[in-house]
């Protein structure tokens, strides 16, 4: 590999120090000149990388939008949940926050609760509600993880696709050396151009996909933890319904006695 990179360095130095026609390899004109000399294999590699890059950026922007909506709806829902005093009020808010995984967990648990109690009163089977909440939390996180594997695949394979183009460029460079019978810059330049362009293209595709995958994975872990915490908070609230009901009955009885006593002293 050393002779090839030596030839690439010589190509750069000659281009940098030359004049006239050699100046055409600078900037965009230089890139266009190199692109005009690459072979069909390198073109195929670049086309595959271009498709991968387009799909990768499409996923990145879609995930950014989805996470932004999920965060906004989750904050809105949790504020309403902690302020509300009735499950019906929370259910109405959950319907207005479809992107929130917390709202999805509440809706599933609330549906199970309504089947048990008809919509009011203490829960009859808390373990069943807990299992429903765990399943709903898992499904909500799975929705957030959808198509994340494509980002990981692109990040992992794009450098190797570019490396394939690099290898074929090196092969073309050696073929040029053999055909010319001498180690001239003109003989190795097309192969070196293919190798460098495909290597750079592979990295250009892989790096954004890898960074996005790591960032999105971290955010999904945050959503998963928040969903688990909310599931426990919701179950605690449902478990406290008998206590609140008893307190309400005691308050009603106390109010009735006070009213009766006032009536006796009139």
Describe this structure in words.
With 266 residues, this protein is mainly alpha-helical. The protein has one domain (40-255). It is built from nine helices and no strands. It has helices spanning 2-17, 27-36, 40-83, 87-95, 101-117, 126-145, 148-180, 185-239, 241-264. Helix 4 crosses helix 5 and helix 6 runs antiparallel to helix 8 (185-239). The protein is rod-shaped.
Explain briefly what this protein structure is.
The chain is mainly α and 266 residues long.
Features:
266 residues, mainly alpha, rod-shaped
Along the chain, the helix and strand elements come as HHHHHHHHH
Main sheet record: none
Q: Assess the beta-strand content as a share of residues.
A: under 5%
**Mean pLDDT, nearest integer?**
77
- What characteristic shape results from the CA principal axes? rod-shaped
What structural category do the secondary elements indicate? mainly alpha
Low-confidence stretches: 1-25, 243-253
Assembly status: single chain
Count, helices:
9
Roughly how many Å apart are the termini? 108 Å
Strand element count? 0
Share of residues in helices: over 70%
Count of distinct structural domains: 1
Give Rg in angstroms: 33 Å
Secondary structure layout plus pairing:
Elements: H1 2-17, H2 27-36, H3 40-83, H4 87-95, H5 101-117, H6 126-145, H7 148-180, H8 185-239, H9 241-264
